[in-house]
Structures are given as structure tokens and as C-alpha cells.
Amino acid sequence: MQISSAWAQTETRLTWLDNRFRVDPAIEQISFIVTREQPSQSVVLVAPDGRKYYANRHSKTMSWYTDNGMDIVSINHPMAGPWQALGKVSANNGIRFISNIQLQAETLPSQLYQTEVLKFSAQLTQNEQPLLLRDFLDRVQLKVIFYPLTSILSNQSNQSNQSNESAPIEVGQFSDDGQKYDEVAGDGIFTVALNVDVEPGKYRVEIASINGVFKRVVEQTVLVYPTPIITSFVQSHQPLTPHSVDIETKADQILAGSLAAYLVVKQPQQKPTIIQQSSHLQQSHLVLSWPNDGQIGKAWWRGWAYVTDLLTQRELVFRLPQQNYTQVAAVAADLSSSLVQQQLKQQLIVHHEQQQQRLFWVVVTNIVIIISVLVVLLIWRRKRVVQSDLIVPK
């Protein structure tokens, strides 16, 4: 676990009639939790030197969170001595303060993969134990933010590369509700399913509280590499041919034989079905298929792929996002086949007509030739007869 700071750990409940409390000189940061009667406005804090602070007007060293019935004020390096909260402070809950909170977070792997999903936890602690003050924790929002880092080579000098940050990308919010990846609700351990859906590159990662209850940040630097799996979907257009998803891993990054996959498939007029499969030894890809059931309509599939990193032996999980498609039924295929047959038949008719036309012109040509020959023969014969009649007898 990585610790953002170390503060002295104390929680105190105060119910003095004048709502006064004393801050010890050793305290570096303190959070006041003031429960108010309803209806009421936010309290006014009075420092030992008489300065007054308000929810909408306070020192830069303060962060002030207010909602119905409660104020949470965090102060860095508070002035030592007696403080006072002026307002309708609840006689039952009074004023509580906790000091020197620690924000701890797991250390991210230095090498992440694009589209990878991993379980990641953080917690607030006191005396190295989870902080369980629900009034405080219920108003804490912890987020994971990726800040892209790019290198800029200076052309003006021989200095080394300087770092420049692009727009931040929020990739997850922690929860402590016992849902999804969170194991136990209300145990002070916040969990997030970290979806590394960012472009490959170098990032500065912040685990931060951003809602004003208190300001704490844990920073890490990671490298995001291109995803080591390639997924392709082949849709069937024939009833006897199944749909299929091919998942292939990169041999230089993923341990052979470690691939397993889980798909949820929803076809028209059917309940979702689950398809699971794992690779054999030395196998680097899987093909998961399901039948084209001949129903027309919209369909989809989504799932998960599980592999082992070859270099670090780290178990990796990749979400296969939902892919929608329209399924073509057998009737539509028959219609398509009938259309093709009609086109072929039409082509045959046209071809037959063309042959008939060619035959017709061949016959006509032959007849013309025969007639021409006969005409020539008749002319020639007549000339012979004429010449014979002109001969004088001896």
C-alpha cells in the first residue's frame, strides 16, 4: 500500500454547551464534523485569534463541505488553542473531529494494457486501521484520474526531455457498498474496477478526493501498452453456418495456453446464453461460436477474456465490449437465393434470345448467298443460250 501522508490519529466527540474545542499544537491537519439541528444554516468557525470562517468565505488552507444537517471542515496546519462553532449544533451528536487521516492505495502495476480491467483498492485509516466513521466516509468521493504525459524535446538547449500534461481522463470511482468488486460494504476499504480504456502511453495517475471533504492525493506513474489480444467477429448469413468470435493473443506478451473466454450472447426471441471456453497447452487463440437460429432481429454479444502476462506472470482481464448485429433469418436467405435464381434465369433467357437472333441472321445470310448463286447461274445459262442461237449454220 502507498501512503500519501502520516498524521497523528485521533477522533474526539465534543458536546460542550458552548461548542468549544481545543486543538493541540502537534496536529498538522484536522477535520471538524459538525452535526446541526434542522432547519439551520452552516456554522461559523471562530479561530483562537477571533477570526471567523464561513462555508462560502474561508481560508485557502480550509476545505468546507456542507449539506443538510452537517458541516465537514478540514484545515491544514490549524492554529493551536480553543476553537468555537457558532450555530444550531446538535445536542446529541455535537462536534466530532478526526485528525491526521491517512489515504492509502494499492500500487498499480508499472505496466498496464489498453482495455485491461483490474480490481484496485484504497482506504482511509487511523492508527493503521480503516476509518469507519460513516458520516465522514459517506461524503468522501475517491477517483482515479490519468494524466497523459508527452515528451517535448527542447531545440534551444541540450537539456533532457521535459514533461507536458494533456487533459486528464477519469477512469474510475471507488465505492464501499459491497457491490461489484467491493467485498464488504462499510468496511472503510474503497474498491474500483479500473477500466484502462486509454490510449497507449505514459501517464501520471492520481488517486484523489475531489469533493471538498478533504484533499488528499496519491500519485503513481504507469506505462500503458497496446492491448495484447485481437478480437474479430464473423457474422453468419446462412442458417447452417454459425456466428463466431476469434480471440488471438500476441505470443511475445501472453503465456501460451493461458487464454480463457466468457461470452454472453443474446439472439432474437431468445434468452441470453453463456459460452465459455479455454485454450489448450501452447494454444494462442480461441474460436467461440453459436448457431444462427434463423430468427430475424437485433442481436448482440459481449464478454471477458482472461490471460497471463508472459513477463510478469500477472493475471490479466480484458472486457470485450458489447457488439450489436442484425441476424438474417432463413426466409430472407431463401428470398435472396430465389432472387439469384431469377437473375440467372433472366440471363439464360437473354442468352437464348441472342442465340436465336444469331441463328436467324446466319440462315438469312445463307439464303441470300444461295439466291445470289442461283441468280448468277441463271444469268450465265441464259448467256450461253443466246450465244448458241447466234451461230450461223454451214
UniProtKB/TrEMBL annotation:
<keyword id="KW-0472">Membrane</keyword>
<protein>
    <submittedName>
        <fullName>TIGR03503 family protein</fullName>
    </submittedName>
</protein>
<keyword id="KW-0812">Transmembrane</keyword>
<dbReference type="InterPro" id="IPR020010">
    <property type="entry name" value="CHP03503"/>
</dbReference>
<feature type="transmembrane region" description="Helical">
    <location>
        <begin position="359"/>
        <end position="380"/>
    </location>
</feature>
<keyword id="KW-1133">Transmembrane helix</keyword>
